[in-house]
């Protein structure tokens, strides 16, 4: 039990043998499914090892949603993500190296929480957590587009990662905001798990897809402004009432650390070739970016992680 056994052991130490056994019974099917998934699909993609000038990450974007809704010119492939949560994706891709040829335009609070700022993992981080839109409780994608355009101008010889928080909840469209008004929670997934009468699954899908349409409009605007080999991908997807298989699990909602299924870790890899490639050069990192622990925790809570 490579992923969940340490957590089960923590349960044993804190809550005793009975709860430990119950926890193992919960985790055992997940771990068996994970092994079978890796045997079928192979190992994950390390995004830094792939060929791109600009990597656009759509947080929480499922491959099947993307393939249904993408209207841009390009080549659609898929990859297996290194993580089923943002935290796992970032840790597995970037904890073991330095990427001083890369600038990260960031909206995800796990990047500072995992220590990448103080470790100067990247040449520079353009941190947008202070650019929070309080009306939608997340960084608006138009803010990300503006920062990404600036990054491409200021750093013409760097790879650029642009991390949009959409289609991840909170839903920011007109219909999605109606969903938010129906629940007393900062996560749309917990109400579905705990009381399916509060929200309908079809409404959640509608809000989720609306979020993807909105962010793709802004991605299209960004593509018009930049050149090079551009890849649109995701850190992870979401379960929306599916079960992990082939060993059946309970219905799952949202995204879970260390759970591998097509809905969670099969992600789009959409390639756009546009104009001249960037000439990439590694240089010492710029002065480290800082964020307060309190702000990071507040942003994680807004995204439904607390």
What does this structure look like?
The chain is an alpha/beta fold. Helix content is 40%, strand content 17%. The protein contains 11 helices and 9 strands. The strands form 2 sheets. Strands 2-9-6-1-5-3-4 form a 7-stranded mixed beta sheet. Strand 3 (99-106), helix 5 and strand 4 (122-127) form a beta-alpha-beta unit. Helix 1 runs antiparallel to helix 2. The longest helix has 25 residues, at 17-41. The two termini are 25 Å apart.
Keywords:
single chain; two-stranded antiparallel sheet; 11 helices; 7-stranded mixed sheet; alpha/beta; 306 residues
Q: Which blocks of ≥5 consecutive residues have pLDDT under 50?
A: none
Biggest sheet character: 7 strands, mixed
Along the chain, the helix and strand elements come as: HHEHEHEHEHEHHHEEEHEH
Strand-pairing-aware structural class = alpha/beta
Proportion in helices: 25-40%
Task: Provide a short characterization of the protein structure.
With about 300 residues, this protein is an alpha/beta fold. The chain has helices spanning about 5-15, 15-40, 65-70, 85-95, 110-115, 140-155, 175-180, 190-195, 200-225, 260-265, 295-300, and strands spanning about 55-60, 75-80, 100-105, 120-125, 160-165, 230-235, 240, 250-255, 265-275.
